[in-house]
Write a structure and sequence with these properties.
Layout: E1 4-7, H1 13-23, H2 27-35, H3 41-48, H4 64-76, E2 80-85, H5 89-104, E3 108-112, H6 125-134, E4 138-142, H7 149-157, E5 161-165, E6 179-181, H8 197-211, H9 223-232, H10 239-255, H11 258-266, H12 275-291, H13 296-303, H14 307-342, E7 351-354, H15 363-374, E8 378-384, E9 387-393, H16 400-405, E10 411-416, E11 420-425, H17 430-444, E12 453-456, E13 458-459, H18 467-474, E14 488-502, E15 506-512, E16 519-523, H19 530-535, E17 541-552, E18 555-567
Parallel strand pairs: 1-12, 2-3, 2-4, 4-5, 5-6, 7-8, 13-14, 16-18
Antiparallel strand pairs: 8-9, 9-11, 10-11, 14-15, 14-17, 15-16, 17-18
Length: 569
């Protein structure tokens, strides 16, 4: 897939010049800072040196006083506490953090993760029933609960207090309980509303430690789990998240807990563990348990203090993840075959695919891959207990949540945001839903919308890419939403030697520009670019890429990871 290259422009060119002079950095580095709304020396210093002392006071969050008082009393009085979490990475890391924290004080704490297919998302009556059976005095929900109005009433009727820690959008009515912690509450003045679910749980831990009169540093031991949640839940890695992410990655690299160490051994991780390692290796394995049904093993892995037990849980997760990948692959192949057999993409602006046998836990992943492949809004549907349920993914310029809202007369339930959503409907409504979604997409999207954009941070000459430049660039880490890895363009690049295909369809070649050093360049899944590169017959090319450090056999080298290639005319 080829992209339209869109060049960003810094808001303040004057700040680029000032930062270049004051910091003594190359212009490209100063430009990257300006693009991140960093325009002063002081702001740049805080960006490059984020520390836990910059974290906000947890008591700035609405209801934190009530929540921390209630939880600290539960600890002092040795009450029974149930931690109720979601089945994804954010929910399981949040659950693990709270369980570890409470058990550290000898609290009789248990956890409840709903089964993805039998119970679905959020607090449900079965979970409240479990709390009653264990004799819980208090339920603390993490990464869920903001819409649990009825369940909060049920808990109150059963004589159980409830604290909600969530980060999702607030509904029309807040649950009636001891405290509702959610920085997205309209009446909450917390300085940053982009926390993950585990991040909100961490703020509760911070406040409770303060209530207990203990040193604030005691809370930081859970930031490795918070970092995994931040990276995996695709929340912005800016502001407070960036501080926690940086500290958490440092912990994982220097002294990882048994469960994380066991996962790293499973993936045979080499070199520094980064956000990318979490997103593509650690997170999917933790997530696999919940996607395939029961997330309990993920929590057991993360709370384990015995390396042998942790190794066993990691091995089990690896096995589950292999099954998940196999299911992914099979579903992707079936979906592509369905598209080729039944759809004319020249006439369609969206894709709604339905197979009653598709696994509900993987259709969201497959929908994302279909969007990457065909660049169309895509909705994958499966059938569960007589209902059709699905996952929707979209492209820039098409708000899939708004589109579903315009079809709400056909839906029993739906929710989500601009680029991703979930839905439930009767089977009899599928065809009309398919027709209407495509009608909405046809009106909303123009032909140019079907060619994805690639946002370029800066043009750069390859002669500027050296170890000093890399050292400065690496200080922008951790990368993620809100602070994406910079994409550079180098024009008139010469291919050195013969390009080839390695691995599973990856383009590999050596390049140089205007007498620069020769760089290794690799384009994952870019095998389709090889024919026109060879047809160029020695002509120069323009490349879009990110710079990264390759670690192989104890040797570190800089390489360019290609994002797109344009052959010069």
């Amino acid at each position: 897939m080829s992209f339209r290259w869109v060049y960003t422009e810094p808001a303040q060119e004057e700040s680029v010049r000032q930062l270049k002079t004051q910091l003594g950095v190359p212009g490209e580095i100063a430009r990257l800072l300006s693009l991140r709304d960093i325009h002063t020396f002081e702001h740049a210093r805080a960006f490059f040196r984020p520390g836990v002392e910059q974290l906000y006071d947890p008591f700035l969050m609405k209801d934190m006083e009530q929540a921390s008082t209630r939880l600290s009393n539960a600890i002092r009085d040795s009450e029974k506490v149930l931690v109720y979490g979601d089945y994804d990475v954010d929910g399981t890391t949040a659950t693990s953090s709270l369980i570890l924290f409470l058990r550290k004080f000898g609290v009789d704490a248990d956890y409840y993760i709903p089964h993805r297919f039998k119970e679905g998302y959020g607090i449900n009556p079965e979970g409240v029933k479990y709390a009653v059976e264990m004799g819980a005095d208090l339920i603390v929900s993490v990464d869920c609960g903001i819409t649990a109005v009825d369940e909060a009433k049920l808990a109150r009727e059963k004589g159980i207090d409830l604290i909600i820690c969530d980060h999702h959008t607030v509904g029309d009515e807040l649950p009636d309980c001891v405290a509702v912690l959610d920085p997205k509450r309209p009446d909450c003045n917390y300085p940053y509303d982009g926390l993950s679910g585990a991040g909100v749980g961490f703020k509760l831990i911070q406040a409770t430690i303060s209530k207990l009169g203990l040193q604030p540093e005691m809370a930081y031991q859970y930031l490795d789990l918070v970092a995994i949640s931040i990276a995996s839940d695709i929340v912005p890695i800016i502001d407070e998240n960036r501080i926690m992410m940086r500290k958490g990655l440092k912990m994982i690299n220097e002294n990882s807990r048994p469960g994380i160490r066991a996962l790293l051994e499973q993936i045979r991780a080499e070199g520094e563990i980064t956000t990318t390692t979490i997103v593509f290796s650690i997170g999917p394995r933790i997530n696999a348990a919940g996607r395939m049904g029961d997330a309990t093993v993920a929590v057991e892995l993360m709370i384990s203090d015995d390396q042998k037990d942790a190794n066993r849980y990691a091995s089990e997760l690896e096995s589950i993840n292999r099954r998940r990948r196999d299911t992914d692959t099979r579903t992707m192949e079936e979906a592509m075959e369905m598209i080729e057999r039944q759809y004319n993409l020249d006439e369609l602006s969206s894709m709604v695919l339905h197979d009653p046998d598709w696994h509900l836990g993987v259709i969201g992943i497959v929908a994302s891959r279909l969007v990457d492949t065909y660049y169309r809004p895509t909705i994958m549907l499966s059938s569960v207990e007589g209902k059709v349920k699905g996952s929707a993914r979209s492209i820039k310029g098409f708000n899939i949540y708004d589109a579903l809202k315009r079809c709400e007369d056909l839906l029993e339930q739906f929710g989500g945001h601009e680029f991703a959503a979930g839905l439930t409907m009767e089977k009899s409504n599928v065809e009309e839903f398919r027709r209407r979604i495509d009608e909405i997409a046809c009106v909303k999207l123009s032909e140019s919308d079907f060619k994805p954009e690639l946002e370029i941070d800066s043009r750069i000459d390859l002669s500027h890419v050296d170890r000093r430049f890399w050292k400065l660039l690496s200080q922008f880490e951790p990368f993620g939403p809100g602070n994406l890895r910079p994409i550079f363009v180098s024009e008139g690049v010469e291919i050195y030697g013969v390009p080839t295909i390695v691995g599973n369809g990856h383009l590999k070649m050596k390049i140089r520009q205007n007498g620069s050093s020769v760089f290794d360049a690799i384009g994952f899944n870019m095998h389709d670019h090889l024919p026109f590169i060879r047809d160029a017959k020695g002509e120069r090319i323009d490349i879009a890429y990110v710079i990264e450090e390759n670690y192989w056999k104890n040797e570190r080298t800089l390489q360019l990871r290609l994002k797109d290639i344009h052959v010069q005319n």
